[in-house]
Design a protein that fits this description.
5-stranded parallel β-sheet; 333 residues; 47% helix; 16% strand; two-stranded antiparallel ribbon; Rossmann fold; alpha/beta; Helicase, Ruva Protein, domain 3; 14 helices
């Protein structure tokens, strides 16, 4: 852990030069994506902190296009898997097929063998497919037959789900939802942004070509730098207070939340909140984490890790409200 002001100053200088690719990356994505700065920022945080991202929003908000554009700009291998109720695990990870010429079974790798996996409408696939994806997400490996294959780095699952269409969907298992570092809620574009989208669509022009401007090696180097960002013990305690308040709200003068929360965030919530806060500091060209980094990313890290009771549903309280109450109650260092 960094101790001296000189160490932090040197790290700041390294980060200033290392973050130059971020502006280029955002500019490249902006060639195609109008607005949606919040979504792009969260995708970059997931990329820099090696965390999977779940995007939730109504159709037509450029979720799929944003993810595809990011993978093209990073010069990485991209796979899109459209999740459907009849999807099989072999359709995702691959399977053994019989080669008649060689008289033996050979492995045919599935679309999971890529750097960026777009799991489109992930909540449409049954439990068997989700369990196959779970190994890849957590262990960064895939087992086909008796052999286990490591996946290339960077490996990132970027999943989308539609919150309004529940026909033919399956709720994601809690264990899998917990594997997503961030759950990002996508909102509609502003009036001015939508006007620009309409104009571009009416002109009927071809979408600009996204140029690969960042290599996967640069991304992996940036990840190492993100982990070196200084986090004071007071910030660590602040993160633990936020997560522990989801488990034992009464200890934080939040007695009214106790009957509303069935279960709180797991230790992954603490780990991911710390990592995402460091990535947020990196994107803001800082070599140290401040409380605002934690606060700005807390909802995206925690909202999908809190289980609510029937009482919360009866009172129309959602996870967003709970996290907001906690952030307002916990003392900021």
């Amino acid at each position: 852990m960094l101790q001296t002001a000189e160490d932090i100053k040197q790290l700041n200088e390294r980060i200033q030069s290392a973050t130059s690719f971020v502006d280029k990356l955002e500019a490249e994505i902006a060639k195609i994506i109008v607005g949606q700065h919040y979504m792009v920022n969260r995708l970059l945080i997931g990329l820099l902190s090696n965390g999977h991202v779940l995007l939730e929003g109504v159709p037509g908000l450029a979720k799929t296009l944003s993810i595809k554009s990011l993978s093209q700009a990073v010069n990485a291998k991209f796979s899109r898997i459209q999740f459907t109720p009849d999807l099989l695990p072999a359709d995702v990870v691959g399977t053994m097929i019989y080669n008649q010429q060689k008289h033996e079974f050979v492995v045919r790798r599935g679309p999971i063998f890529a750097n960026f996996i777009l799991a489109d409408e992930i909540n449409r696939a049954p439990a068997k497919v989700q369990s196959a994806l779970l190994e890849a997400m957590q262990e960064r490996q895939v087992t086909i037959g008796e052999t286990t294959y490591p996946l290339d780095e960077p490996f990132l699952v970027l999943a989308t789900q539609n919150p309004i269409d529940q026909e033919g969907t399956y709720p994601l298992p809690e264990a899998q939802v917990d594997r997503f570092m961030l759950k990002v809620l996508i909102d509609y574009p502003s009036r001015e942004e939508e006007q620009l989208i309409v104009r571009q669509s009416l002109q009927g022009l071809k979408l600009p070509k996204i140029e690969p401007i960042v290599s996967t090696i640069e991304i992996l180097q940036a990840r190492e730098l993100v982990r070196q960002i200084y986090m004071d013990e007071k910030i660590e305690q602040y993160i633990l207070d936020i997560v522990f308040a989801t488990r034992k709200p009464s200890q934080y003068r939040l007695d009214k939340l106790a009957p509303l929360i069935a279960y709180g965030g797991s230790p992954r919530a603490s780990i991911n909140l710390a990592l995402a806060a460091k990535a947020h500091a990196f994107l803001n060209k800082r070599g140290y984490v401040i409380p605002e980094d934690v606060r700005s990313i807390a909802k995206d890290v925690i909202r999908h890790r809190i289980g609510l009771t029937y009482e919360a549903e009866a009172e129309n309280v959602n996870a967003e409200n709970v996290v907001e109450e906690i952030l307002n109650a916990v003392n900021v260092p």
